[in-house]
Write the structure tokens for this entry.
Amino acid sequence: MMTLGPTLTTARLILRPPAHEDFDGFAEMATEEETMRYIGGVAPRDAAWRGMATLAGSWALLGYGMFSVLRRDTGEWIGRLGPWRPGGKEGGWPGDEVGWGLKASAMGQGFAAEGAIAAIDWAFDHLGWDHVIHCIDKKNAPSIALAERLGSKLEREDVRIPPPFDMHMVDIYGQSKAAWRARRA
């Protein structure tokens, strides 16, 4: 099988582009109502497949996309996170995003923060991004807390993202590469 991008490792995680063997994890997560509440809603297996294929296609077309997140100790697929900008610079996305979504069983253990730190470092170092955003529903308190823990600040409110999710308004949290580096130093 062709590798579409890098594999990043952290103390507890492996981040790599989505692979066919991740599908059962994607499909399971897609059925979790609380998990999916702010990231498109619950979906059947066929829609989960299209979502996973979209992420893999981003790697093939743009050279980046969300990573599959696996636990290093068990190899279990626990979610997806990483750089995201559908359509690249030509698309209508509000900026260069690092987003996250984990299965319910993986929440509350610091995995999203650990993975997001690695993904933001990678985006700044390898994609040449100068600024990173996180598109978050204003009712999603855990994601807002994570964005703030990462050092991001509220930049814009009530932003409409492009179709097919244009019925949802999000707030944009973000920070510059310089602010990220200063905070990490």
The radius of gyration is 15 Å. The mean pLDDT is 94. The first strand starts at residue 8 and ends at 9.
